[in-house]
Specification:
This protein is an alpha+beta fold. The chain has 4 domains: 5-16 and 363-435, SH3 type barrels; 55-178, Nuclear Transport Factor 2, Chain: A, CATH 3.10.450; 201-357; 439-523, Alpha-Beta Plaits, CATH 3.30.70.100. The chain has helices at residues 5-23, 27-34, 55-67, 71-74, 88-106, 164-176, 181-185, 201-232, 240-265, 272-311, 318-343, 348-357, 359-365, 367-382, 422-425, 453-469, 503-523, 545-572, 596-602, and strands at residues 107-109, 131-139, 142-152, 158-162, 195-196, 199-200, 390-393, 396-403, 407-412, 417-421, 430-432, 439-441, 444-447, 473-485, 490-498. The strands form 4 sheets. The protein has a 5-stranded antiparallel sheet with strand order 10-9-8-7-11. It has a 4-stranded antiparallel sheet with strand order 1-2-3-4. Strands 12, 13, 14 and 15 form a 4-stranded antiparallel sheet that branches. A hairpin with a 5-residue loop joins strand 3 (142-152) and strand 4 (158-162). Helix 1 packs antiparallel against helix 13 (359-365), helix 5 packs across helix 6 and helix 10 packs antiparallel against helix 11 (318-343). The longest helix is centred in the middle third of the chain and has 40 residues, at 272-311. The two termini are 67 Å apart.
Length: 609
Amino acid sequence: MFAPHRFFLRRVLIAAFASVLFAAVPLGPRAQAADPPAAAPAETSPKDILGRETPEGLVRGLIKAMAEQDYVRAANYFDLSKIPINQRTARGKELAQDLQQVLDEGGWLAQGRELSNVPEGLLDDGLGADLEKFASVRTHQGTVDLFLQRVKNADGVPIWLVSTASVAQIPSLEDKVKAGIFERILPRWLLGGPLLGGVPLVHWGALLVFAVLAYAMSSLITISVASGLRRLWRRNPDSLKRRLVEAAVPPFRICFAVTLFVFGVGYLGVAVVARQFFGVIAQIVWWSGLAWFLWRIVDAIAQVTIDKISQRNHWEALSAIRFFRRVAKFLVIAAGLIVILDTLGFNVSAGLAALGIGGIAVALGAQKTIENLIGSITLIADHPIREGDFCKFGDQLGLVEEIGMRSTRIRTLDRTIVTVPNGEFSSLKIENFAMRDKFWFHPKLGLRYETTPDQIRYLLIELRALLLSHPKVDPDPARVRFTGLGADSLTIEIFAYVKCTDMNEFLQIQEDLTLKIMDIVDACGAGFAFPSQTVYMARDQKPDEAKRLMVEEKIRTLRGISTQTDDAVEAEEPDQPRPASTSESPDIPEQPPSGVGRLLGRIGINWRQ
């Protein structure tokens, strides 16, 4: 049975969980809302129409302008404060074209998580608070980094621009950049041609071909390594190491191919716009491959653990393993989605902060969800049932098919599925039939009233011998007793345990014992009573006259003995007065003589009568 005190424990856990959610709510905004003078700083600050509030927004806008070959708009992403005002438009356009050419030949832009999507930028990158690295250029003398700097525009809005120091470096980098493979081996006319998204088609084709080559090389390497490991562990094909290798090969092949692609594409010399587009896709694929890798590793570890538990018959731990496998997979998917959204440029930090602000709403609106989660943890920790157990919950019977994070699914005797929320299920009275070690054999035999005592004695001996001789009946206890006289039968009670755990086997043994009991009852000439009444009809018989006269004679004899005894007593004590008698008959004394009263009392006769 499921202990009732678990209900109190579940309530305590729910309260603790809700308190954590309340604690997650930031106190600062709430305090500001309560204080009217402090509400002014909460007003929304002006937005930059070019998206230069964050380093990630600047790079995205700059790439878009380069892809559209709108170099006048691209010039707005450079800090041209050191250039005379009348030359800024033309000079800015030239700088944007020069930067694109330098990056096409031998440079690369920061991508995804390398760029900050918050206005303050990365504060732990070792640079100044107002500096961010956004690009690198490979030259013959080494790698040159280009930086962004946070400044204020004419409206006083803080924005990020290519720093003045990096702007001054761009013209000299055009002569120092180390050209890529395309620039060195392909003719200039082949690098031109039709454009797609501001990039020659040959560049797109080169990236696709290189992606296929990277995947082929990754497949060759992973297959070779996996084959060597399989031969190393061929003696134990079901070992954890072998299963981990089998689970890791497919996702590792994808991650390794993406790594080869990202590492090699920087040396091709294709357009930076195309590389930036493929770079975002490569990061999404890489993180997806990592999530797939963790997913398969969790599956492999859980399966090996389940196999070992099954071999040791520790069935109570199976539900816990399956539950924690689901939790681990959920965390893997959640983490993967967060990283992918961050790679696509979504402000995940703001989203998580919004979850903290909505902690009260979550705590109040998700009480049932939290209750069900705590209920599932309680079921797993206390394991009153396991998957595959036949149990009774409430007034229903069924087979437990799955214990999930929110609910438990049970297949009833009608072959329907009943889904019970774990919060409710953990508080029910649960009777687990799968946990019993023996079956109770407890029939009561009702015999006809015509059965003689000797027949009952014979039945008791034979029935006890039957139980003690059966190999599946536990001899301690194996009782057979005549328990009493019923309304319509003589009752014999059998109390024994059958040593089996399977219901079908018990029914077979019970059938065998019951048939043998019927044979024993029939062999002794007895029969089973029906719930009926028997009416006996006979002539009225008068009392036996001879017996009446004999009894009266015995009483007169006893009275004569009593009179003689009284006379003897008066002769010995003549001076003592005789007590007055309260009876109409003076011959009957107040007290019977010694021995006579006891004799008359045994046969039910009053001395005075």
